[in-house]
Write a structure and sequence with these properties.
361 residues; alpha+beta; Gyrase A, domain 2; 4-stranded antiparallel beta sheet; 3-stranded antiparallel beta sheet; 17 strands; 34% helix; globular
Length: 361
């Protein structure tokens, strides 16, 4: 799972290894899940089912037991079996390799080996060197070096799930030299992985794309100033990595003080520049295939240029270098499969979660 690897990055990069796999194997342009954030899509890809089934509706949500905003990275929140649990039922051994520690805590069920480059063990640091900072391009290279070595050494590993970080995409557009160099290096790592494990099949997709955003709203402050106060407004994008996106994303959950406030609050939010839709809980659950119990009373989506979150004031103009995701405009991602053992048809792959839907089922 190449985090942030939207179709724009695929199209703008040469990546000869990946492009050859796409030409010789299976390639499809598919849709990621909404919200277009990492946790929802990682869970969907790893479980092969939508959020309505697995229950991970974003990076953040309102914990109704504590009445506090919380991060969705506890494995106990996952309500569907992972790829690793399905494999274990067949006596297969799985490894989870991720740049971000939040993925290790969310998807670890059923794994025999978990490596988080953000928090490597002393043994890993001794063998592979000190891992680069999570806010770096190089951490993805370190992770893939571990994967390649494990592929060469651990013949007992039957399935490996590899998840990079999208920090490079937050920092650099697809045409920038830094982005081109990052993806060229990842392509070289894929080639090396195939060389040390020539019998391996490679299933590749992404969680979301990335775009420059020009405008941000704090919906809680905006509603309060317009005589329509709400209980809480949450960016579904907010996680523990604020440096790269400032906790702002293209979709938000709004929790009402009282049910009767719904129309008034919706009318206020609809009047804000850049707001594309204001949906009720039921409408959003149906449209985006989400578990309704874990989203807001209202769900707000932005246009291509707009994000939501917590700000010092009700709205801000974003810097020219700011890039984020979360909206429907970041759901277009590539899907590539190199697997000579299976006859696959590109037409059966329409969503990124289709990558694993039939594996070990």
């Amino acid at each position: 799972m190449l985090d942030g690897f939207g179709v724009e990055y695929y199209d703008a990069s040469s990546m000869p290894t990946l492009k050859k796999w796409a030409a010789d194997g299976l390639f499809a342009r598919v849709r990621g899940q909404m919200p277009a954030v990492t946790n929802t899509n990682n869970a969907s890809i790893c479980c092969g089912v939508p959020s309505r089934v697995h229950g991970i509706t974003g990076n953040s949500y309102l914990n109704r037991e504590t009445s506090q905003e919380d991060f969705m990275e506890d494995a106990r929140l996952l309500m569907a079996p992972t790829l690793f649990q399905k494999a274990a039922n067949r006596g297969l051994v799985s490894g989870l390799f991720t740049s971000k520690k939040k993925t290790a805590s969310l998807l670890k069920a059923g794994t025999s080996l978990v490596v988080a480059a953000e928090t490597p063990t002393p043994e890993l640091a001794k063998r592979y060197g000190v891992a680069p900072n999570i806010y770096s391009i190089e951490i993805n290279y370190w992770l893939w070096d571990v994967v390649i070595d494990q592929l060469a050494r651990r013949k007992d590993l039957d399935v490996l799930y590899v998840h990079t970080t999208d920090y490079p995409m937050h920092m650099h557009a697809e045409s920038e030299p830094e982005s081109q160099a990052h993806l060229a290096t990842l392509d070289q790592k894929l080639a090396e992985a195939a060389r040390v494990a020539p019998d391996a099949a490679f299933y590749i997709t992404a969680d979301h794309g990335m775009h420059h955003k020009t405008r941000a709203w704090d919906l809680g402050k905006a509603c309060a100033r317009r005589d329509a106060p709400v209980r809480l407004a949450i960016s579904a994008e907010r996680d523990k990595y604020p440096k790269q996106h400032l906790g702002l994303g293209g979709i938000a959950w709004v929790y009402l003080r009282q049910a009767r406030d719904a129309q008034r609050v919706a009318d206020v939010i609809k009047s804000l520049a850049g707001v594309e839709k204001v949906l009720t809980r039921g409408e959003a659950a149906t449209e985006f295939d989400l578990m309704p119990e874990r989203i807001g009373d209202l769900v707000v989506t932005g246009d291509r240029d707009t994000v939501f979150g917590t700000l010092e004031q009700e709205s801000e103009a974003m810097a020219a270098t700011y890039r984020s995701h979360g909206s429907r405009y970041e759901t277009a991602v590539p899907l590539i499969i190199r697997d000579v053992s299976r006859k696959l048809k590109a037409g059966t792959y329409r969503q990124n979660l289709d990558l694993t839907r039939s594996l070990y089922s």
